[in-house]
Structure formats: structure tokens, C-alpha cells
């Protein structure tokens, strides 16, 4: 039974779209199996609407752009390589800074003193004196706080503002400072500012504060803590405004809680403030988390849910584009494309103008679900409305075309980036590079890389493994090494990127190249555990188990402890390599290190026990697994049942299949096939037939292994009719393999139906299914039983053409067919004796002799020419066969030359040598040669045997009658 197990290794995901425009979406989202397609007619452009009233900059600052992300690595499943020859335009370099809030960098041509002066001026703008601060309006002070580069400067500036005479505490100022602190994860300072706001300034938290803090917490990976703020504000009787509501909807969306996000949005629109539906178990929150002080207020009764009753239920209509963008993205991720389109079409009627982000979101979600035409119509509608696409728009379009394998579509939009006056960014380059590399378009990819370098930028880190894999898969190892030395040596290259490159070599079995990357010099960064794990995989794939010890020593010297993946990889490697003791020892070390092995890990060790028929060890490990609280799965039970089936222990196999069913696991086809084998070894054909009939009612029916098991069972029992039914069914469905034919062949032969066995043998020979020596031997056995010498010789020739070595069974059948033919018993006996003493030339001589007696003279002569080249390795038997072949084929000169070489090599001619030599003299009419042989035999007093006598007599045909008569008298 073949069981496939998990290979434990880390993989570096290489998405097309980065966090630059997909900041939060890290988890795959559930998609509807068949999303409804939206008619293109719904995408008819509408007149440009006036901007929504009240859509100010402050709202955008707090809420930020909505995420329009998804699992890009799954989205971009590409088609096989296509041949394209396209010229890629050289576009401007991506901007130096991706954040529009950053100040521009100084011009590189400016003198040092000018650059320093500009820096001082920028610093003075961010840190104005108190007189300037006092003259600023509250809005200007808010902007200045937002522009601060780090949390400490923002806090210090806020302290200066609070110290100004006449300063009125502002919730907006608090929200900006709290956002700075939350993004820097300065939780202690944040708690201090929060308490000062509530106590010293007597300023209750407001919507801007809650929204800013929730947004920062979510971006810091504290989504559950941020949702606590929603319950906290409702308990205080604060109704979420549109910005706060949009922020919490986005957090729920990014956390994959689409239903809760839609419920919150709908409740807010209907004027209801209900948060009880959000499952928020306080006990699961980290007791040392950043919002623990808020949790303490709620748990100790300082505030309670009674405040929510004071919130007036007033229906609301969203008025901000950012809200619509968030909800549209939410519908898209939930697979509700029609609702997303309805929300999009509702924007103009609500007085909201769709912006670039809206169209980017719509294009992305439709492209993600395979609706390419609708996405293209949206892009066209965007241009018609007068909304200029940005670089994210083009990246979304290129991502969509890449997902469908449309290279032309990707490059068309890439070319249009420059025509629109935009600059390609790192995301653009990564999309195009990945498309070109995955289609092995080496020259085009190299042109793009050269353009990136000429623009003054570098190839993005996530593109490095993709380019390396392209070179490796194409066998361009020199180019791969050159690229690695040029682009992968920087200190910004992470250990995970190195691991991905090592894995690319490992997949091709190039362990030495992988080792070179692993041990290459690093600037600053040290190796991560991921690299060690992938290197273990490389050694395991190449079966270089001797290298693992030094790798683990290096790992220990570096102070890196093995993780769960390390142990899994080592166990899998040694288990698949046939080292059950080492795999079991590592399993014990894994448990001692504090890791709990999973079912798959136990299954890997049990697999190697099963392959080596170590029954007791497999049962002991099964019991250990159960005692550890790990429940066996269908693979483990299948392995145990299979090992008992192979060893003929039917009762034990039935015992474990009962345990399997009692644990609620239904046996699959593999398990039932193993049980059929067990019944077959016990000759219980009725029980096996019942299982086989049961498999016919399962999805897919019985596989070829189960059918062959039943066929073999019927063949062993001589049940010709039953076996023929299964075999005919397999042939009709084109499922019959070499095992199926072999079983029928042996059945007919053992039943004495030689004509039927010969027919099956010819069918198998012409089917193209013969793949190993065993299958050829099965066919040959039928030819030998029927005495078909020529068929045997042709089959051996077919084996040689397929580079399949003949084994002892093959030669045994060759000797058997020779004895059945009109061949001298002494010659066959000499061949058998020489074969028993080993020697490759003897095996070739036997094949040449078989070809010769089968009338295949040219094939026999070709074999002799091959093994006679290294003359120092030939023996007496090989020389005699060569003599016979040369004599039969008329190659008299070669025969005489061989006789001379025999004397040089110290090989003494025997009777067979003289027989073949006599034949050559007779065919050449060389009576003197015949007389010499005759006189030599008389001098040595060697008695004529029948073969030599017949050879001498046959010389009459050459005209040597006198010598022939003398030989006859003797």
C-alpha cells in the first residue's frame, strides 16, 4: 500500500501584491464556490457626482485606506510556459519613499552644507518655538502633531501644547498622540496618556480617540484588543460615528469575521448599537495586554453595558467614500459580488463620488473571482468618469491578468504605466518578473532586471528566489550563481529568502549548490531555523544522510535549537531513507524537547516499520501513540492493516479494521485493498469478493491495485472464468497494467492453456507495458513452455534495446529453451558451467549463441563484436561462441585472428575450438588447414567425437574429399 506523507519544510510565500496596498490581509478568505457573475451592462459609466458634504481630510487621516487584499499566492496559479518575445519599456524608477507623509529627500547634487541647512529647516518646522505654537490654530496644531516622526517627539510636543497658556484640551490631539504611541507599541505611555485624558483634563474618550487607537492596535496585530474598545465605548454610551464604525468593520473584515462585520454595519445603518453578537471572551485576552486597564474597568463595574441604552436609535446613511470602499471590499471577500456591485451603484445616488480606491477595490474583487471582463469594464469606466488610475490600479490589473496566465495582458498594462506618466513601483516589477520567470522567459526577465538596475533601484527581495528558480529549472546554473553573487549578498536579504533559494536547489536534487548558498558569507544577518530545516530537506532528497550530523553540529554551535519542523523533517528523512531505528530515536528526542508529535509524525515512523515488516515495533509505536493522547488516522490504521495483510495475519488485520471503524473512521479503498490481499493469502475468495463488490459502490470504484489483487487471487485458485471477467473489464476500461497481464498469463500457463498464454504474452509484449525484468521473464516463460526459440531470442533483443539487464531467471529459461532445441548438449553444458563462474562476457556470449541458433546472425555477430573489444577479459567459452558465430557468418579472417589471440592470451583450444576451426577451414577450402588439425589430433592422441566427425565429413562439400575419407575411416 502506498501512503503519502507530509514533507515538513517551510516555504516562503511570494505574493504579487505587497503590504504597501494590502496591509492587513494575511489569512485566506472563504469564497463562495460559484460567485454570481455581474452583467457588464451594470457597469455603464454614470455622470460625475459632486463630492459628499463633510468628507474632510480628518476622516481619511484616522481611518486610512481600506484594504483590498487577498491571498495573492493562491490567486496567481499560472498556466504552462508560453513563448513570447516582447520588448519591455524602461520606465522611471519607483519613488524613493512609498509613504506620502514623508518629507522628500534632499537632492543628491546639493552640497553638504545646503543639505544640512535643509535638514535644520525641516527640524525647526517640526519643532517650532512656543510663540509659534501659541499662534497656531487647533487644526494646524493637529497637523503638526501628525507630522512628527516618532512617538517621543509627538509626546513631547503634546506636553508643550498642554503647557501653553489658554490651551483647551482637544480629543483630536489626544487621538493623534495615542495613535503614535500605539503604532510604536508604547503601551505603558499610552495608558498614562489615556488616564491623564480622563482624569487630569476631565475629557472622556471620544470617537476620534477610539478610532485612532483601534486602528493602531489592529495594525500592531492586536485585533481582539481593538474590538474591546468597541464594547468599551458602547458601555460608556458613546455611539460610534461613521469613521469609528468603518474602522471596526475593517478590523472585523481583516480578521476574517465577515458575518460580524456585516451585522455591525447593518445595525449602525438601522440606528441600533448592539455589540453582544461579537464573541469576545475576556478570559482569552492576554492578562498583560495593552488594553488590560480597560478590561479592568469593565470587569470591576466601573462601567457597564447600561450605557448602551442611552444611545438614541437614529437611522444613518454612510456619507464617506472610505466607508463604501470598506464595505465593498467586505462583500468581495465574502464572495457576495452582487452586493458589492449594488453598494458601488448606490454611491452616486447617495452623493458619494467613487474614488480611485473604490475602483481599485472593485477591479480586484472581480478579478479575484475570475470575472475578467467585468474587471476590464470597471477599469474602462474609471477612465471615462475622469478618475485617473494610479499605480495601484495598474498593479491590480496586472495581478488579475497574471492569475489567468495572460502574459500579453500583464505587459500591456505595464507598458501603459509610463504612458500615463506614472512610475512603476516595486510591486509592478515583482508582478512582471514573476510572470516572466514562471514562464521561463529568460531573456525578457534579464532585460527587465537590467532596466531595474539602470534606474538606480534593486531587485526586490521577494523576486530573488523566483529568478533563481527560473535559472535552476532551466539548468542555467552559471547564471544562477552569477545572479546570486550580484543580488543576494546584501544585508537586507533575509534568512527566509535564503531558505527559498536553497529550497529551489533542493527540489532539483542539487544539494551541493544548496550547500554553497547555505554556507555563503552573510553581511550582518545570521541563519534562521528555516534555513537549517530546508537544508535538511536538501540532504534528504539527495540521500546524503552523512551530511546531516555536521549540519546539526553547526546548528548547535550557532545557538539555534531545533523546532518542531526540524524534528519532523529529520524523522521524515530517515524514515523514507530506510533507517527505522534512527527515526524512532529522533521521535523520542522530539518528545524530550517538549514537542508533541502529531499523527503524521508517528505515521512516518510506522511506515518505515511497515516496509521492513517490523510488526512488533509498529504495534508498540501504535500503543505509544495512543498513550500520548494522539488519535490514529486512516493512514496509521491502513499501515497496520497492510503489514498484517502482507504477512498473512488475517485475524490481526480484521482486529485493527474493527478498531478503526469503532473510532469513527470509515475505511477507504486503500484499506479495503489491503484487506483483500489478506483474504487472498488465506484463499478466502468469497470474503474478498464481498469487499470488492463493496468497493464498486464507492466513489471511483476499485482501483487497479484492488482489481489486480482479486485477479491474482482467482489465478492462484485456478478460477479462470472469474479472473477473465475482471481482466476483460480492465482491458475495456484501459486500466490493465503489466501485473494484470502477468496474472492472466500465469493462470493460463498453469492451467495448461498454452495457446491462450501465448496470445496474452504477445498482447503484453505489444502493449508497451513491459518495464522491468520480471515482466519480460513472465512473457518468456510462456515462450519456453511452448518451445518458441525465435520468440525468446526476439524478446531478449527487446530487453537489450530497453537497457534492461537479464537476471538469473532469464538465463535459466534461455538454457531451458536451448536444451529443447536441436543444440549439442555439450555446448549448452559448457555455457552453463561458464555462467556459474560469473563474467559479463560469458553472459554476452550466451546471448550471442541464442541469437545465432535462432537465425539472428547479424544480431549475434554484433554482440560478439562488442564483447571481443576488451580481449583481455574474454574466457574460453566466449572465444568458442565467437568462433561459432564467425564461422556461421563467414567471417573466416576474424576466426583465424581470434585463434591467434587465444595463443597469445594463454587460452588452450578445446574440442569445441577445433570443431569451429575445422568449419572455417572447410568453408574456405583450406585442405592444408584441415590436414593440420587432423595430424594435431592424431599426434595428441585425441579421440574424435561425433561433432568433429560430422564437421570433417561435411568438408566434402568444399572439395576436400581425400581428407574427408581419411577422417571417415578413422
UniProtKB/TrEMBL annotation:
GO terms of molecular function: mRNA binding
Stretch list, region Disordered: 108-138
InterPro entries: Mito_RNA-Proc/Resp (IPR051240), PPR_rpt (IPR002885), PROP1-like_PPR_dom (IPR033443)
Keywords: Repeat
Low complexity bias: start-end ranges: 115-125
UniProt keyword Repeat present: yes
Repeat keyword on record: yes
Location of the PROP1-like PPR domain: 545-652
Leader peptide range in chain numbering: none
PPR repeat boundaries on the chain: 206-240, 320-354, 355-389, 528-562, 563-597, 598-632, 633-667, 668-702, 772-806, 875-909
Protein name, UniProt field: PROP1-like PPR domain-containing protein
